[in-house]
């Protein structure tokens, strides 16, 4: 039951991300500061909630920190959050999420680049269906399409950053812990 409540809480927090970033930015807080605050608070919450015998899994070991994919994952996590925050401020929230959720495409490209793993037809179909689902869930025609190259690139960079984080879980530090 605790896991379900944590998942519901995370979903609630994630769903308020775009409006929260816009609200906080209206007070002059930069996207970089918003991102650093989010990463710091979420890390503290994870450390607090992790059972103590497993808490050593949260802190990276020196051997893990020597791996390039560890640092790519860290850069990916930061670019995911920062790109998303900047995109929320420059383009519509719906378009931001559609572009951000191109992460599976970037993950497939990364899996091919790292391990020459080719996507199966089922994975490709699942990708198409999920992107269509995101489109229908978040696109609001009343918001209109604000074309802002920086906002679009930041949303795509956020998706690519999230893919780096996912790839680390599959091919890097995450597969060992």
Tell me what you see in this structure.
- The protein is an all-alpha fold.
- Helix 5 (68-90) runs antiparallel to helix 6 and helix 6 (93-100) runs parallel beside helix 9.
- The longest helix has 23 residues, at 68-90.
- The protein starts with a helix and ends in a 6-residue tail after the last helix.
- It has helices at 2-15, 17-25, 31-49, 62-65, 68-90, 93-100, 103-115, 121-138, 149-171.
- It has one domain.
Describe the secondary structure blueprint for this structure.
Elements: H1 2-15, H2 17-25, H3 31-49, H4 62-65, H5 68-90, H6 93-100, H7 103-115, H8 121-138, H9 149-171
Helix pairs in contact: 2-5, 3-5, 5-6, 5-9, 6-8, 6-9, 7-9
Q: What attributes does this structure have?
A:
9 helices, mainly alpha
- Cα(first) to Cα(last) distance is 24 Å
Overall morphology: globular
Unreliable segments (pLDDT under 50, ≥5 consecutive)? none
SS content category: mainly alpha
- Tally of structural domains: 1
**How many strand elements?**
0
| CA gyration radius, whole angstroms | 17 Å
Q: Describe the sheet with the most strands.
A: none
Report the sheet-strand fraction.
under 5%
Order of helices and strands: HHHHHHHHH
Number of helices: 9
**Averaged pLDDT:** 82
Percent helix, as a range, is over 70%
State the gist of this model.
The protein is mainly alpha-helical. The protein has nine helices and no strands.
